[in-house]
Model the fold of this input.
Amino acid sequence: MELRWLEDFVVLSETLNFSRAAERRNITQPAFSRRIRALEDWVGAGLVERTTHSVALNPSGQHFLAHARAVCFSLAQAKREASELAKSTHTSLNIAATHALSFTFIPEWLRQQNDVMSLGPLNLVSDSMQACENLMQKGEIDFLIAHAHPDAPSELQTPQFQSRVIGHDQLMAMISPSLASQIKTTKHPAPYLAYSQESGLGRIIDATCKHTNTDGLAKAGFTSHLAATLLSMTKSGAGVAWLPESLAGRDRDTGQLEIFNPDFPTIALEIRISRPRQRLSKIAEELWSSLPLS
Done:
């Protein structure tokens, strides 16, 4: 069995598409398919159900996926730890954060941490929740900072990882005053601007608002994993979007945005920092120890 077979299988589980998975692995689709077949032969059971138009993990594949991810993570982490031990220079901190928090929460939070201790060299990656989780599962970052909600579990809520609350935020359905006025006149539903599947905020909205009466909203006509994109489109009058207060609060205070429907719930959010349970570099462990318990 080859490690790359496990890595292939993990990517296939994320894309559920042989062509996209092969592209991400930088090999041809026939070669990728042969490697998945080789893995299945080694396991002694089929792992995926293949049809003309779709791919899905079967029960054996779902069970095997957790172990495949754990092996890939452990080896990547061991490689990284060995590399860091071999370095005589100061190790940099590697932090990933979702886009919305990278614009708002992260700069001030990092300044506060630097007041407590010298963080030294820092590599900050800003991406979607799904991409950040992938980096953590591959052992390529020390910490992930993202919005969280109890009803929308993260892929990192496993024994391999741990997290702490370092802040709070809230989601509100927002609209521009011009569009609100137009809707009152026409009585038409407001266009809905939604988060894509890669977005952690999208997961939270799906989990917490599935029983919410959304009268007055049309079906989603636009999606993005970027809260900043939805903010810009909402301000321009393109529709209604659930926006974090940390990002849209100033625009609400200045009158560029307003609450769409006071009857819609406000969704309370935690801002969490997650890490692997395995020991990190000295500076990463010092940062973790300085954070309040939660």
About this structure: The chain has a mean pLDDT of 88. The two ends are 41 Å apart (CA to CA). The chain has three domains: 3-84, 90-167+270-290, 169-269.
